[in-house]
Amino acid sequence: MSRKKNKNSLSTFVNTILAIFGEHPFKPMNYKQIAKMMSVRDAAGKDVIHQILVTLCNEGKLIEDRPYRYLLHPDFIREYGPKPQYVVGTVDMKNTGKAYVIPDEEGEDIFIAANNTGKALHGDKVKVAMFPKRKSKKNEGEIIEIIERAKTDFVGIFSISHGYAFVVPDRSSMPLSIFIPRGSYKGAKDGQKVIVHLTEWPDNAKNPFGEIVKVLGNPGENNVEMQSILAEYEYPLEFPKAVEKEAKAISEKIKSSEIKKRRDFRDVFTVTIDPHDAKDFDDALSLQYLPNGNYEVGVHIADVSHYVQPGSAIDAEAQERGTSVYLVDRTIPMLPEKLCNMVCSLRPDEEKLAFSVVFELDENANIVNKWIGKTVIKSNRRYAYEEVQEMIEGADGDNKKELMTLNDLATKLRAIRMKEGCINFHSEEVKFILDENGKPIDTYVKVQKEANMLIEDFMLLANKTIAETMSKSNKYKDYTFVFRIHDEPNPEKLSNFIQLVSKLGYSMNISSREKLVKSYNALFAAVEGKGEKNLVETVAIRTMAKAVYSTTNIGHYGLAFPYYTHFTSPIRRYPDLMVHRLIERYLIENQPSVDKEEYEELCLHASEMEKRAAEMERESVKYKQAEYLQDHIGKTFDGLISGVSKWGIYVELKGSKCEGLIRYADLNDDFYYLDDENFRVIGQDYGNIYQLGDEVKVRVKSVNLIKKQLDFEMVGNTTITKKKKR
Which spans in 2-71 are helix H? Predict the structure, then answer.
């Protein structure tokens, strides 16, 4: 045999061995196992295999996992291992630099080591090459392609050190600093908050490059921090000039020809009931006593669609924003101020255009008749919730008879709703008392009372009626429409919730939807006034699917409505404006259906913007809570244990709902370990237990205003008894 032939044969031998290791990338094997797989039985052949394994190990293609047992080096798995599977998904980046990819299709999350992220960032749409799965190990892979960047603008602190400039992003999900070349500072000074735009990421660079696009100001200043929140979520800080120009040109005067087209409610008793600091009044209620003993109740909604036309600059901007955003100290409206606070707003003693659902209700609040159409109204009075609540509780006031009639009907509507299977969710809202500079001087939890529910009940009725009218009609049931849908609870989350409440001493029956709903409502009644109330209600809400907008109706699980939409807030929600246009197009103008695909895209965008707005609002609350406690470092507060984790114990303060972390290192009376399954931590020596819902006293240790983080120290736990040291 020639030397060349010998060499080729050896090469084939080597490749065969590597292919075997590639088929079993996580199985350590010795030369005898390899020989058996290759059907080599003679001693000389086995010796050759042994020598090849040693050589491959020296070359770095194999690693010696244990004496004389070898594994394919991870760097060569792709070359010699099984052909990789590819998965498309979204990156969930951690502050350590490692990540998980959430697949678009159903399946387990994929772990991505920090050195395999391929310059992907949080939220990016990516393609992942899957690694061969190890036995009883999690899915793992490598990002090989960035399909779509989630964002390229980031908020952070501008820093200059040793002649180099970087922006350190605020978000922990962006673990890399962004390098800023000279000439791209835009006047930013060391330590200032800025918005940076990611421009490139050279192949040989560890960090991405960027340029400053806006200097926000000094961190810790109220206006800077609020603008930072908006900028981080890429919500516009101001309206484009073209939008402001269009808004300015809109006349507040209503033409007599327009009034003639509409049903006239100007002489009918009509009121608005809103928060005391509200400026945009998008709904009003009217009441008439009918000769037959029934009641005519009109739900009148600001006719935004009359003023905001499709294709206009105002409409394009409203569509992009999707919703108004309500930060603690300011509202960032969907529409320009002239429209939301003046032209469209149903202000008292002013003639206004409305889109209305008018009901004839009997004494038991059953619907006898209904009418949907365009109206003109004139509100007699603007009420704050507090004023109406005082009357409900016995105080005298203007138009008390009419308001009590409306409240009585609302109470009956609520009872009907609960009887039909509505889940009685309650979520507490944190409110702040601010000084003239926007700094919180006090905080409290807003309690929803009957006056709030009065309005809510009629709005729910109107939304439900609009959706039913479209869906139950033979003419319109196949027309494209915008629904507010809410899916069934996630089974895994529901199971975890049942486990949690059982640890707290409560039980739930999930054998049917009816029994589950009864269990939910019974549970909420049982925890009322107890320490675990907020915990149970918060986690209960998290078990539920998120309500979204869609052109495909599946009903609303939480409300127990087969058909539901959003019609009642077009000043602050774009889907409501879409619904107004569709109702006018179908019911009034008798036009054919719109394109379903186009409207589904609008629904998806609106749902995403709603989610984003909720996150912004939470961020602003967290900032104000941190700002409030900054002046209370060292002070002691009563709180409830709201969570346990591998980092420590989370405690939520009573009254302010500020949540902070007690690190295990600061629990110096014992060494504590996490009992995750039972939602508690246990002291190793004394057996002390801290569990969810426990009432505790804590001291404010430190406040990180920039990161919105609170650290507490344990002062006492009234629920535990120290045991003797074992």
Answer: 3-23, 31-37, 43-58
Q: Which residue has the tokens 């939008």?
A: 243
Q: Are 63 and 71 in contact (CB under 8 A)?
A: yes
- The token duo for 562 is 């087969």
CA angle 618, 154, 643 (to 5 degrees): 35
Query: Is 90 exceeded by the pLDDT of residue 406?
Result: yes
3-state secondary structure 466-516: HHHHHHHCCCCCCCCCCEEEECCCCHHHHHHHHHHHHHCCCCCCCCCHHHH
> What residues contact residue 621 under an 8 Å CB cut-off, 6+ apart?
328, 430
The mean pLDDT of 120-133, rounded to a whole number, is 89
Report the CATH architecture of 3-78: Orthogonal Bundle (1.10)
Backbone angles phi, psi at 106, to 5 degrees: -65, 145
Top-level class of domain 632-717: mainly beta
- Rounded to 10 degrees, what is the CA torsion of 585, 587, 591, 592? 100
Query: What is the β-pairing status of strands 636-644 and 178-179?
Result: unpaired
Which neighbouring-strand residues pair with 166?
159, 179
Residue 1 DSSP one-character state: -
DSSP 262: S
Residue 355: count of CB within 10 angstroms of its CB: 28
Domain(s) labelled CATH 2.40.50.140 in the chain stretch across: 84-148, 632-717
Q: How far apart are the first and last CA of the chain?
A: 78
C-alpha–C-alpha distance, residues 577 and 572, integer Å: 9
User: At the topology level of CATH, where does 153-219 sit?
Assistant: OB fold (Dihydrolipoamide Acetyltransferase, E2P) (2.40.50)
Amino acid in position 508: M
Place of tokens 């390098």: 179
Which string of DSSP letters, residue by residue, matches 625-641? Answer: HHHHHHTTTT-EEEEEE
pLDDT tens track for 548-596 = 999 999 999 999 999 999 999 999 999 999 999 999 999 999 999 999 9
d(CA 511, CA 702): 47
- Write phi, then psi, for 6 (nearest 5 degrees): -60, -45
Give pLDDT, residue 80.
76
Phi, psi of 45, rounded to the nearest 5 degrees: -65, -40
| pTM, rounded to two decimals | 0.83
Residue 151 sits at φ, ψ, to 5 deg, of -160, 155
Structure tokens belonging to residue 333? 């409206």
At 617, the amino acid letter reads E
Rounded to an integer, what is the distance from CA 111 to the centroid of its chain? 23
Is pLDDT above 70 for 718? no
**Element (DSSP H or E) covering residue 103:** strand 99-103
Rg, the chain, Cα only: 32
Q: What is the pLDDT of residues 76-112, one digit of tens each?
A: 877 776 677 889 999 999 988 899 999 998 788 999 9
Q: Where in the chain is the domain with CATH 2.40.50.700?
A: 153-219
Contact predicate 389/451, CB 8 Å? yes
Which neighbouring-strand residues pair with 551?
none
- The values of phi and psi at residue 248, to 5°, are -60, -35
- Assigned token pair, 617: 């609002």
Question: What distance in Å separates the CA atoms of residue 140 and residue 126, rounded to the nearest whole number?
Answer: 14
Contact of 317 with 328, CB cutoff 8 Å: no
Q: What is the C-alpha separation between 129 and 379, in angstroms, rounded?
A: 62
* 84-148 CATH fold: OB fold (Dihydrolipoamide Acetyltransferase, E2P) (2.40.50)
Instruction: For residues 642 and 304, give the distance between their C-alpha atoms in angstroms, rounded to a whole number.
Output: 42
* Helices (runs of H) and strands (runs of E) counted in the chain: 18, 33
Secondary structure of residue 261 in the 3-state scheme: coil
